[in-house]
Amino acid sequence: MLLLRHHPASLRCHVRLDSAIHRLAMSTAASASAPPASSAASDYHCRTKHSLTAGYARGPGRLDWANQPNPFLRFSPPSQIPLPNPPPVIAGIPYPSLFHSPPPPPSPQPLSVNSLSALLFHSLALSAWKSAGVSTWSLRVNPSSGNLHPTEAHLLFEHPRDPGRLVVSHYAPRDHLLEVRSAAPLADFPALLPPLATAVLALSSIFWRESWKYGERALRYCNHDVGHALAAVAVAAAALGWDVRLLDGLSDEDLGYLVGVEKGAPPPPDGLPDKMVRGKAPWVERQHPDCAVLLFPAGSEPKVDYGAMSAALRGLDRLEWVGKANALSKDHVVWDVIYHTAEAVKKHGPAPGESFSVNPWRRNTVLSDGLYKELTAQEVVRRRRSAVDMDGVHVMGRDTFYQIMLHCLPSGDVSPEELQGPPSALPFRVLPWDAEVHAALFVHRVSELPKGLYFLVRNEEHFDMLRRAMRQDFEWERPEGCPDGLPLYRLMKGDCQQIAMQISCFQDIASHGCFSLGMISRFELVLHEKGEWMYPRLFWETGVLGQVLYLEAHAVGISATGIGCYFDDAVHEVLGLKDLEFQSLYHFTVGAPVLDKRIMSLPAYPGPGIDA
């Protein structure tokens, strides 16, 4: 059992919140407090919780370095479209201007090899190589749990140098190029690129890359990374004058045709196993189709016919596909629950009444552009790093904290009569559903703001539901100086550093920053009302929010990191949440990083030519 240290009774947050966790740790029934699971998604979610009493979710226990998956998927023999590296200079946009200028963003760039290069270079490309001793590894613009990068990207577009030719390609970030998997006359597939559309970008996951390290909990992390990638693409596209919207009416089967699931690793020979299996299992290197987004000029609204697009995607299966996928590992571990759950939460087509639509573009509320460093949006996204330690000293200004919180709101700058919830601001506008995710904040070092527990309500329709579900002795007071239109509330004053550290698997980084947070999502009702296919999408939303926090931190001159390891029900106990009405899906910390001087930074391109 993990034991907790107690704190001075002079601080209310220490006493009241630490005692809540202590009660949970001492309760032998704590791990069984949730009601019986009613769906595959909730069953998986409860099964993969880290617990103060029952221990951590099932994982490998040790790392099998000999079989660490190759982070780079390649197809050979390749038919390639080289991309300018770096892309030709397109006028840099000051980072705050991308969010604060009157919408829509700059005049749209035409589709070209140069603009495709810029899109990918500032969203999914390598950002650096790191070296320490005999080890060398790559970093990317889009963050990933454990830097394992399960996410693959695919682009469908009209070849800018061969008009009328539709190209289906895979992005290879190590060499910053597109691998052409298939091609056909665009006239044969007009529904795939409707009028006004620029391109379609699809994301897929290779679960094995995450489960190699994290075991059964890896499905959560893969979907965090989908959200990170969605936000990265949305921000890079906005800098080109493009908008991005999820094509969420497509089924998982449709998406499989687009990413070429059956054109890569083989399927399981005898169906999905019903237990964990060790040994050669090349099928676990198959891609799982996650989602696709439509890219189009900002300010326009393409008309998408999901039925026609679905039929056209199925037609891709009849084309000739080129390239054989490289093997990622010699041996594997099959965490069966991941694949059964992924199968159960697939979406099978548009929800009733679902159609493609684009929300009006809204800017974010601005306190002062002077709170940010003089960096372009392109510089910020490529400088993003995941901190591995915080200094425990740096104090953030209150206005900077409030500005970051304003950028976390989905609806942007709304009128006093409107509520936060609909996704209209960058990058949340990539998502077609109203916000489901909120933030419970542990404020440690923000000047003129008392230390304590705070809560950001990102969908104000949920406010009454949240108050009823959480501890009845919480204050729900607006903090001093809080801007109008920012639904931020102080729940309790006091030093919460030990609490933040304890619930985040005793990681000091959760207490050594300026603030840390848990992302709290409406859960059981969402799965019941909309369907189990919302389970991965809730994690996508947390990943989008996490990417905003990454970029905001770097834009003001500090750093951040996502925290996937936390004690789920300890977080819920702190907040007073019971059952599965709300669940904590992702944690995060923001502060001044401690840099490890033993690690050498190298340019992203040209790299050392290794797969790491």
Index terms:
single chain; 612 residues; alpha+beta; NADH Oxidase; seven-stranded antiparallel β-sheet; six-stranded antiparallel β-sheet; 27% helix; disordered N terminus; Nitroreductase domain-containing protein; Nitroreductase-like; oxidoreductase activity
What features would you describe in this structure?
This is Nitroreductase domain-containing protein. The protein is α+β, with helices and mostly antiparallel strands. It folds into two domains: 271 residues, NADH Oxidase (3-Layer(aba) Sandwich); 202 residues, NADH Oxidase. Helices cover 27% and strands 19% of the residues. It is built from 16 helices and 20 strands. The strands form five sheets. Strands 2-7-6-5-8-11-9 form a seven-stranded antiparallel β-sheet. It has a six-stranded antiparallel β-sheet with strand order 16-15-14-17-19-18, sandwiched between helices. Helix 5 crosses helix 6 and helix 7 crosses helix 8. The chain starts with 11 loop residues before the first helix and ends in a 10-residue tail after the last strand.
Average residue pLDDT? 92
Beta fraction of the residues? 15-25%
List low-pLDDT spans: 1-12, 24-37
Distance between the termini: 37 Å
The secondary structure category is alpha+beta
General shape: globular
Question: Tally the helices: what do you get?
Answer: 16
* Rg over CA atoms: 23 Å
Could you name the CATH topology of the largest domain? NADH Oxidase
CATH class designation of the largest domain? Alpha Beta
Profile the largest sheet.
7 strands, antiparallel
Q: Say how many strands there are.
A: 20
Proportion of helical residues: 25-40%
Side-by-side strand order of the widest sheet = 2-7-6-5-8-11-9
CATH superfamily of the largest domain, by name, is: NADH Oxidase
CATH architecture of the largest domain: 3-Layer(aba) Sandwich
Protein name: Nitroreductase domain-containing protein
GO molecular function, one term: oxidoreductase activity
Organism: Oryza glumipatula
InterPro entries: Nitroreductase-like
